[in-house]
Every structure is written in structure tokens, then in C-alpha cells.
């Protein structure tokens, strides 16, 4: 069980319960019986991306830049009786995707398009793929060695994203 499994399961469970309350038309104060009744729409289709480190040994920085691939995961909106079922279902999906070639192929195709067509086409391709997902999950580990900026040591690095077409980008470290 990894942080990605738990984060994806918690997000699925939380959003499922939130949407169930919203579609029931009930305020947060009055929750009499609406949690048990399924008020969700039948055809909600959400997707999330999960960034995966493709380096052979995690934490060791080799020359050649970042080796990051991504997989597109179904973001399942459903009500479960046991809250742990959300996490177990997310773990099964993430494990199946991690053992596939999807992350390696997304990295390889992006690198090929970048070398063949240039930055403009590669960024347009990446933006096109990512704009068709709802959430992006990442827990990629930052640098393990001490880093500095113009000779000043950096004690803490806060990740952020700008310009991605997502509703939410949760970071976990």
C-alpha cells in the first residue's frame, strides 16, 4: 500500500460522498438517511493522472533529466459500505496500471515527439492529454541531497503548479 493508493482512495470516497449529498439536495446539517441512499448520477466519467518515477533506482539522480511517465486512471464515483473499499479498489487499479507499459510508453512517446517535432508540438500533445483528465496525483520525491539557490541553502521546497487544466492537483510528500 502506497501513498498514491491511499490518496486516490480517499479522494474517490470523499468526492463520491460529497456528490451524493449534493445530488440529494440536502444541506450538510440535515443528513438523515441520505448517506445510505444512492443519489449519484449513473454516467459520471472522471479520469485522473498519476505521475510515476521511471528511474531504475529511486532517489539517485542520474544525468539525462527527469524520467517521469504518467498513467490515466479511472476516477470511480460510487458509494461503498466500508470506507476501506475505496482504498482497496484504488490499489488494485494502480497496481494493474503500474505493471503495464503505459508509464514507459507515455515517457518514450513524449521524448520521441520532443526530439522529432520540438517543444511546441510536445507541449501541445501533453496539454491535450492532460486537459482530458479531472485530477492529477503526484508524490514524486524531491532531491535527497542538500540544494541551494545562488549559494543560499534551501530548507524547504513547496511544490505548486501553474497553467495545468485541472480542477485540483493534490500534492503529497
Give the strand content.
5-15%
Q: pLDDT under 50 segments (min length 5)?
A: none
Structural class: alpha+beta
Largest sheet: 3 strands, mixed
Per DSSP E runs of 2 or more residues, the count of β-strands stands at 5
> Looking at the structure, what is the overall shape?
globular
Task: Please tell me about this protein's structure.
The protein has 173 residues and is an alpha+beta fold. Helix content is 38%, strand content 13%. Strands 2-1-3 form a three-stranded mixed sheet. Strand 4 and strand 5 (152-153) form a beta hairpin. Helix 1 crosses helix 2 and helix 3 (102-117) runs antiparallel to helix 4. The model has no long low-confidence stretch (mean pLDDT 78).
